[in-house]
Amino acid sequence: MIRQPLSEGDIAPDCILADPNGNDVNLRSDSIAGNPIVIVLCPRLSTAGKELLTCFSQHLDSLSANGARLFALTLEKAELAASQKLNFPILLDRREKVFSNFSAPRERPSTFVLRR
Q: Which domain holds residue 97?
């Protein structure tokens, strides 16, 4: 089944993923919901992917000042994700379910902004 990309106004798909330490994070939980959410789907932590995550990391204060929460999602293994030393959570989508639900490409990073 081919999914259509999300459009403005669409309800975001469920997104419950583990961080590299095995802790589940639900992006629709009460502690996160109600804030704008920026999701960077970075399939591989290649040089380009790492540069993109570094760029977002450098702008985290600005995003936070506007109430936004920032998360990265990757298809990589926990060890590689944990080694990134980001100042925001990186979550693991090892089964590619969330990438599929968001119709995100697997060959390049993509970004979604979810409003409250």
A: 35-114
